[in-house]
Amino acid sequence: MSRQTGKQDQVSFLAAAWCLSYPDAALVARVPLMRAALGEFPGASQPFAVVLAMLESTDLMELQTQYVQEFDLGKRHALHLSYWTDGDTRRRGEVLGAFKKVYRGSDTLVDTHGELPDYLPMVLEYAATVDMVAGKELLQQYRPSLELIKFGLLRDNLPHAAMVQAVCNSLPGASPADEQAVMRMAGYGPPTESVGLDPYDPRLLPMKGA
């Protein structure tokens, strides 16, 4: 990876982390900064154009209401990577512990801001500001989750899909053509078992929307 590519990934990952987070006045104030930083790289601004325009032109309360509706009230666009692999099963605790272990291994205090450590904006910010190599390894490990998030956003015509696709494009390998291809590649869908149930084979489960 060239130095220029690495810098572009840092800028794109941090912008995606911010734009996928709950919108507040601080995020809106960062729009000019994101535009300027993304504008340094050919084509980097395009995946962010619609979301940045929305942040600039939409009332903040409306932005927040839309975000809660799309990202907080259901699982269709769940931004927690391990949801798509482990759902709410007891195994997920170990997975979240693995994320924390990666963060601790960087010798940098990572503020989770009250979020679970597999929260996509947090992983992106970690990659952009702390350790790109370790961050990309986490993203590649959960590439199917990223792809399923992207397809869910596309299905509901949400412009955030383009940002997630840009993240996928920075990782090794081409994106699967559709959700079924992701399922075949990964061998799972988002499990729905409750904590404490017996282990299961996720390959036997169809993907279920929330």
UniProtKB/TrEMBL annotation:
Coiled-coil spans in chain: none
KW Magnesium (keyword) present: no
GO MF entries: metallochaperone activity; unfolded protein binding
GO annotation terms (biological process): chaperone-mediated protein complex assembly; nitrate assimilation
Pfam families: Nitrate_red_del
Descriptive protein name: Nitrate reductase molybdenum cofactor assembly chaperone
InterPro entries in the cross-refs: DMSO/NO3_reduct_chaperone, NO3_reductase_chaperone_NarJ, TorD-like_sf
Keywords for the protein's UniProt record, in alphabetical order: Nitrate assimilation
